[in-house]
Write a structure and sequence with these properties.
By secondary structure, the protein is an alpha/beta fold. The chain folds into two domains: 159 residues, Vaccinia Virus protein VP39 (Rossmann fold, 3-Layer(aba) Sandwich), CATH 3.40.50.150; 57 residues, S-adenosyl-L-methionine-dependent methyltransferases (Single Sheet), CATH 2.20.130.10. Helix content is 26%, strand content 36%. It has six helices and eleven strands.
C-alpha cells in the first residue's frame, strides 16, 4: 500500500484534505449523539492527523491502530499521549473498549471482500462499550467508479516537492489505483510507484455486513467529504 509514500503522506494530503474541518465535524457529531463520549479508537489511523486534532482541539482521548509501521511512527510522534497499535483492522485484540471507533478516509475498502468487511466490523463491535458507536467512512460503491479516472496532486515542503499522478482501473468488484510519484529534493529526482486495491460495496451490502457483525447502522449520503458515512451501534 503506502510503501513508497508514508513519509510523503501528510505533504500530499495536506494540499487538498481539510483535516481540521473533518475533525470538527466528527467532534460535533459525537457531541450531538452523546456528550459523554471521550475515548476514541482511530482504526487505520494513518499518520494520526485526525487523532491529533481530536485530542488537542476537541479534548478526546484517542488511540490508533494501523498496519503500516511507518505511519505509526509518525502518529506516535504527533500524539505522545495516545497508544498506537500495529495490527490488521480485520483481526485485532486490544485490552480496552472505547466509546467511539472511527474508520475514516475509505480505509475499509482495503479489506477488499464483504466477508472481511463483516469480520472487521465484528472486531469493531468487540471493542465498543455498550453505548458506543462506530463511525465509518466508506469507499465508493460500484456504480461510482470507472476505469480511466485520473487524479493529480502536488505537495511541497522545505527542500522537497512531490507530484502524484493516479489512474484507476475497475476489475469487477475491485478498484485498482496506480500512483506514480515524482519526488524532488536536494539529492535529485526519483520516481516511485504504488498500486492500491480497494473493494467496491453497495450501501445495502454494507448495511447487511453491519447487521451480520451485530451492529445496527444508518447511512448518511454526504458524510465528511461526499463519500457518505455509516453510524452504527451494538444491536439490541
Amino acid at each position: 500500500m503506502f510503501t513508497e509514500s508514508a513519509e510523503l503522506y501528510d505533504l500530499i494530503y495536506s494540499s487538498f484534505k481539510d483535516y481540521g474541518a473533518e475533525a470538527a465535524q466528527i467532534a460535533a457529531l459525537l457531541e450531538s449523539i452523546d456528550p459523554v463520549y471521550r475515548t476514541v479508537l482511530d482504526v487505520a489511523c494513518g499518520t494520526g492527523e485526525h487523532a491529533r486534532l481530536l485530542a488537542e482541539i476537541h479534548g478526546f482521548t484517542v488511540d490508533g491502530l494501523d498496519l503500516n509501521p511507518e505511519f505509526l511512527r509518525i502518529a506516535r510522534a504527533k500524539n505522545p499521549a495516545g497508544q498506537f497499535f500495529e495490527a490488521d483492522m480485520s483481526d485485532f485484540h486490544l485490552p480496552t473498549r472505547y466509546d467511539v471507533i472511527l474508520c475514516l478516509f475509505s480505509s475499509i475498502g482495503y479489506v477488499k471482500t464483504l466477508d472481511r468487511v463483516a469480520q472487521t466490523l465484528r472486531c469493531f463491535r468487540n471493542h465498543l462499550v455498550g453505548h458506543g458507536i462506530v463511525i465509518l467512512e466508506p469507499w465508493f460503491p460500484p456504480d461510482k467508479m470507472r476505469t480511466g479516472h485520473h487524479s493529480e496532486h502536488t505537495g511541497q515542503g522545505p527542500h522537497i516537492r512531490v507530484r502524484r499522478v493516479g489512474t484507476t482501473e475497475v476489475d469487477g468488484r475491485l478498484s485498482r489505483l496506480r500512483f506514480e510519484y515524482t519526488i524532488e529534493n536536494g539529492s535529485g529526482t526519483r520516481q516511485a510507484t504504488e498500486v492500491h486495491e480497494l473493494g467496491l460495496f453497495t450501501i445495502d451490502e454494507m448495511l447487511a455486513a453491519f447487521a451480520v457483525a451485530g451492529l445496527t447502522a444508518e447511512h448518511q449520503p454526504e458524510g465528511l467529504a461526499g463519500r457518505g458515512l455509516y453510524i452504527a451501534r451494538i444491536a439490541a
